[in-house]
Amino acid sequence: MAEETIVFLENEHTIVYDGKEPLFDTNHKNSNLFSTIAVPLKYIHSFSFKVSNSVGDDELSMQTELKMYKEGGLDAQKEYAIDFIKYDLGDEYLIEAFALSYDDFNAYLSNFSYKIDVVDLAFPHFLAYEALYTTEEAKKSNDLYIYISEEEAFGAIYQNGRYIGHRVINSLSAISKRTGLELVKLKEYLIEKGFKRDNYDLEETLILDTIFEVFSKDIEKIVYSINHKRGLFGLAGIDKVFIDFDANQLEGLEDFFSQYGFEPLIEPLVQHKGQASSSVSILLDYAFSLHEGVDLQHINLTHLARKKPLAQYLGFKYLLETVSTLVIMLVVSFIVTYYLDKQKDEITQLQIKAQIQKKKIQNLSLNLKKIKNKNNILRKEKKELEDKIFVYDTTFRIIPMISQISTKRQKMMNDIVKVLKKYHLSVSSMFQKDEKSFEILLISKANRRSDISKFMHNLIEMGYKNVTTRDIAYEKGVYKSKIYINVKEVEPHAKR
Amino acid sequence: MLRDKFEEIEELDTRTKTGIYIAIPLVLLAVFYFAFFASAFDEFDANQNKLHSLQKELQKPTLRLVSAKIVRLKKELIQNRTQIDEKRQQLNFFQKELNSKSFLFISKKSISLFLNKLLGNSLHKDVLIQTITLHNENSPYIGNLKLKKVIDVNASGRFLNELSLLRSIEKSTMLIKVENLQIILKETNMPICSFEVKFFGVER
After folding, report:
1. Is residue B142 part of a domain?
2. Per the CB < 8 Å rule, is B144 touching A390?
3. What are A121's strand-pairing partners?
4. Is residue A405 included in any domain, yes or no?
C-alpha cells in the first residue's frame, strides 16, 4: 500500500483512500495508515481575536491558549486540543481559534463501531472545500458553501479559494424538530420542491412558511457573517453559492440572497469519488491533499496524535549517547585495565628474573670472593717466591762480582807489597780505601830517594794508571812521601 | 513513563537540548576520569618507571662481568699454580746452587758464625783483635744491592798475618767487602790495623 494512502474514519466504516479510489470497510485494519476524521461542529469551540503581528508563533500559540480559556469560554477543568488559523490583516493578525475537548472527542469516538487509538488529523468539515480549488482560475472567485445534512449544517465563506469564515445553521434534524415535520418528509420537500412557492400546493403553504422562516433566519446569519468578513478581508461579494446537499439543488434559494442584494450563481456540489458521497469525497480529497503536503489552510484538533517511535525522540538519542559513551569508556577502561594487568605481569616476571639474577650474582660474588682469596694467597706466594728467586738470582750473580772485588783488593795490596820489597822501601802507614784506591806513606833514605819514583813507575807499569804524590818531605835524613794509587780498571796484560 | 520523560525533553529549548547533548559525554568522561582514569594513568606511569628500572637493572652487566671475572680468575689461579710450581723448582735450583757454594745470607745467625770465624782465624793468625763494632745500615749500594751491616775491626799483629786474616775474611761465603783498611807500621810495636767489613743484602 502506498505511503500516501490515508484512512478516513466514519461512524460505521473506514474509507481507505489512495487519491484515486476510496475503499470502504467496516473494520479499522490498517492502524499504521495516516488516519483522519472530520469533527462534528457541535464539539468545536471557536473564538476570534486580533493580536499584533510582531508576536512570534510560539508566543501566539501560548496567547491563543490563554485567550481560549479566559475569553473563549473553555472549561478550566477540562483539557482541550487547541489550534488556530492566522489571517494577516497588514498591521495585525486576526486569529480564528478552535478547541476540542478531549472528553468530547473521546465520547464521539466511543460511538464508532471500531476501536480508534490514533487520529493523525481531526479537522472541521468547513475547511475541506479548499481542496476544490485546484487551479488558479478557480481561485479567482468568492464562494459560499452551504452544507446541509441531518446532523449538521453550515455556511462556509471562501475568498479566492481560501477559507475566511463559517456560520453554523440549523441541521435537517433541528428544522424537523422546530417545524414538527418528519425528517424524511422534510428532506423530500427540500429536494423535490425547494423553496419555490409555486411548487407547493395550497395545503402545503403552511409547511413552506415554517421552513422558509427557519431558513430565512439562517441565511440572514450567513449574510451577516459575509458582511462582517467584507469589513475584515475586503470581501467584494459572493460570486457562487454551492449547495452541498447530497448533490441536490435547493430550488428558490436565490430569493433569500436577492433580498440582501446578492445575485450569486447557485449550483449543487457534485464531487463523487467511487461509492463515496459528494461531501465525503471532498473530505477525502482535502485530507489526502494535506497528507501529500499540499499547502492548504488547516487545523488539527486531535489529542490522539500518533506517538513518535521512541527512537525518534531526542531523549532516546541522549540515552543512546550515554550508553555508547559508557560502552566506549568501559571498553577503554577494559583496555587500560588489560594493559595495567599486562604491565603488572611483566613487572612480576622481571622482578622474579631480577631476584634470580640477584641470587646468581650473590652466589657468583661469593664464589668470586673465594677464588679471589685463593688467588690472592697464590699471588702472595708467587710474589714471595719471585722475590726470593730475585734475591737468590741476584745474589747468585753478585757473588762472583763481590769475589772479584776482594780479589782485586788483595791483588792491589800484594802488588804494592811486592814493589815495596823490590825497592826496600819502608812504610809508615798505608790506607786502602777499597779495591781501587790506595794511599801509602813511604820512607826512604836520602841516598835511595830515587827508589820512590822507581816504586811509582813500577806500579804504573803494572797497570795502575794513577800513581801520584803530592809532597816529598826530607826530615832527619829520610825522605817521606805520600803516594796515591788509583786504579780505574786493571789492564788485561797487567793481570798476566 | 520513559515516553513522558522523552516528551519533557522535547519541550526544552534548543540551547538546553544542545547543551545536554554536549554535556553528556563530557560529564561521563569527567566521571570516568576522576573515578578511574586518573588513578589508572598514575599507576600506568608508576608501573612504566618500575619496568624501566627493572629492565635497566637486568641489563646491567654485573652477572656477565662477575662470570667473566670468575673465569678470568680461575684461569689466573691455574696459571699462578703452574707458575708457583715452576718458581718453586727455580728456587730449589738456586737454593741447591747456593748451598753447593755454602753461601750464607745475612742474618743474625750468619753474622754470629762470621764473628766466630773471625775470632777463630785471628787466633790462628796470631792477630789480636782489639775492638769489633757492629753497625746496622740500610743504604743502597749498587742496583738492588744494599748495605745492611758494617763491622769495624781494630787489631794488631804482624803485617803479613794481618793481611792473611783479611784474606781469610774475604773467603767468607757471604756478600761482604773489606774497605777502609788502614795499617800503621811502627818500628817498636806491632802494626796496628783497622778495617771495615761491609755486609750486603739483595732487595727487590
Report:
1. yes
2. yes
3. A36
4. no
Q: Which of B203, B201, B195 is nearest to B147 (CA)?
A: B201
Q: Is residue A385 part of a domain?
A: no
Q: What's the domain range around A266?
A: 6-307
User: Residues near A207 by Cβ (< 8 Å), separated by ≥ 6?
Assistant: A179, A181, A189, A200
CB contact under 8 A, B66 and A346: no
**Three cell numbers written together for A58:** 510560539
Asked whether residue A281 is domain-assigned, the answer is: yes
Please state, in angstroms and rounded to a whole number, the distance separating the CA atoms of residues B77 and B71.
Answer: 10
A294 and A424 part of one domain: no
For residue A318, pLDDT over 50 is answered with yes
Residue in chain B closest to A316 (alpha carbons) equals B6
Q: At how many degrees (to 10) do helices B38-59 and A314-422 cross?
A: 20
Query: Quick one: which H or E segment has residue A38?
Result: strand A34-39
Please report which confidence band the pLDDT of residue A489 belongs to, taking 50, 70 and 90 as the band edges.
very low
Q: How confident is the model over A382-411, as pLDDT tens digits?
A: 999 988 898 888 888 888 888 899 999 999
**Assessment of whether the complete model's pTM goes beyond 0.90:** no
How many structural domains does chain B have?
1
Closest CB to B83: pick one of A314, A374, A382: A382
Residue A493: the pLDDT is 43
Q: Return the CATH number at A452.
A: 3.30.30
**H or E segment at A82?**
strand A80-88
Both A24 and A166 in a single domain?
yes
Asked if the C-beta of A364 comes within 8 angstroms of chain B's C-beta atoms, the answer is yes
Per-residue pLDDT tens for A191-209?
988 888 888 888 888 878 8
